From TrEMBL:
Annotated positions binding NAD(+): G8, A9, A10, G11, G12, I13, G14, D34, N95, I118, S119, N120, M232
Keyword Cell division: no
Organism: Boletus edulis BED1
Complexes and interactors: Homodimer.
Stated name of the protein: Malate dehydrogenase
GO molecular function, one term: L-malate dehydrogenase (NAD+) activity
Length: 332
């Protein structure tokens, strides 16, 4: 029995993500929550002939508490998206408070659930969830994840295009580490399961890295009114499905995700040494298990250029993480 909950379920990501979770036969209960339209979305999805029982709640009548009761996995795509000209950090002002309030609900009603944070800026919203959980005395770093899967999905897609065979896209795996915004997104293309063509390098490689780092900006520019929703729903469901499979006992599932490095003390400390940082959060390849993070993997062998990308990511990451942490101490 697995209860999955989507907070922000009526939004651009929330609706297709809820659809994809409804299609997962391992989900037996699907709880939807939003400040608008969640009961309607639930009524619609409830007619799909898959096992999950679907319920939708609004804020009134303790909707958040009701939806979170018994939750095993909570996915959070609630909050405003970017418009052209905005950075993810520009969303902090609005989304930090939304995520804080939702995290408070989870800490009090479903403290043992795995929490998958999609709301931007992920580099700050994950520390916000963690700090709220600390305040409530229920912090378990193994169960809080920043969803960076869209960067991994983009990397696979773009590499398949360069290899001239899109049918490879689903089997190509490229670790993407660091965080989820601009230069904090660090694709380790030298570790691609399917190597780039011989001689691919220089400005072509730099352009590919930028394409992955700023893929979100491309979508924001093309849409003009918001950011990636459908590809994010796909990526969010991919990651949630992995968390659910691991919860049910499947071994050996590894995915990059933005976590508190205390989630695996030995792995986290080794990673800090490897990249030369004392940051508390980083997106790394994580092995998932029934209790969430099982093992934080290292970076492994990378090129000099990739080392430089990691070094360039660290200052921004620090600023983003500190901002999230201090928001709970000193809300603005
Ligand atoms: P959207 O505006 O279409 O949907 C957001 C939903 O959140 C809306 O339905 C809104 O009513 C709801 N909401 C707002 N406040 C709420 C609250 N307090 N409780 C519950 N629900 C609330 O936006 P979207 O395009 O779905 O994007 C959502 C978030 O996801 C944005 O912050 C965006 O930047 C982020 N995002 C992250 C990634 C990633 O890779 N992690 C990718 C794409 C988008
Ligand atoms: C993305 O990478 O598409 C998301 O983080 C949304 C955005 O603002 O770019």
């Amino acid at each position: 029995m697995v209860k999955a909950v989507v907070l922000g379920a009526a939004g651009g990501i929330g609706q297709p993500l809820s659809l994809l979770l409804k299609l997962n036969p391992d989900v037996t209960e699907l709880g939807l929550y939003d400040i608008v339209n969640a009961p309607g979305v639930a009524a619609d999805l409830a007619h799909i002939a898959t096992p999950a029982k679907v319920e939708g709640y609004l804020k009134d009548d303790d909707g958040l508490q009701k939806v979170l009761t018994g939750a095993d996995v909570v996915v959070i795509p609630a909050g405003i998206p970017r418009k052209p000209g905005m950075s993810r950090d520009d969303l902090f002002k609005t989304n930090a408070g939304i995520v804080r309030d939702l995290a408070t609900g989870i800490a009090t009603t479903a403290p043992n659930a795995s929490v998958l944070v999609i709301s931007n800026p992920v580099n700050s919203t994950v520390p916000i969830v963690a700090e709220v959980f600390k305040k409530h005395g229920v912090f378990d770093p193994k169960r809080i994840f920043g969803v960076t899967t869209l960067d991994v999905v983009r990397a696979s897609t773009f590499v398949s295009e360069i290899l001239g065979d899109r049918s490879l896209a689903t089997s190509i795996a490229v670790p993407v580490v660091g965080g989820h915004s601009g230069v904090t997104i660090v694709p380790l293309l030298s570790q691609s399961s399917h190597p780039l063509p011989p001689g691919f390098g220089g400005s072509d490689l730099e352009a590919l890295v930028k394409h992955i780092q700023f893929g979100g900006d491309e979508v924001v520019k093309a849409k003009g009114t918001g950011s990636a929703t459908l590809s994010m729903a796909y990526a969010g469901a991919e990651f949630a499905n992995k968390v659910i499979l691991a919860l049910k006992g499947k071994k050996g599932i590894v995915a990059p995700t933005f976590v508190h490095l205390a989630a695996d003390k030995a792995g986290g400390e080794a990673l800090k040494k490897e990249i030369g940082t004392d940051l508390e959060y980083f997106s790394a390849p994580v092995e998932l298990g029934p209790n969430g993070v099982e093992k934080i993997g290292g970076i492994g062998k990378i090129t000099g250029a990739e080392k430089a990308l990691i070094a360039a990511a660290l200052p921004d990451l620090k600023v983003n993480i500190d901002k999230g942490v201090s928001f709970i101490e000193a809300p603005k």
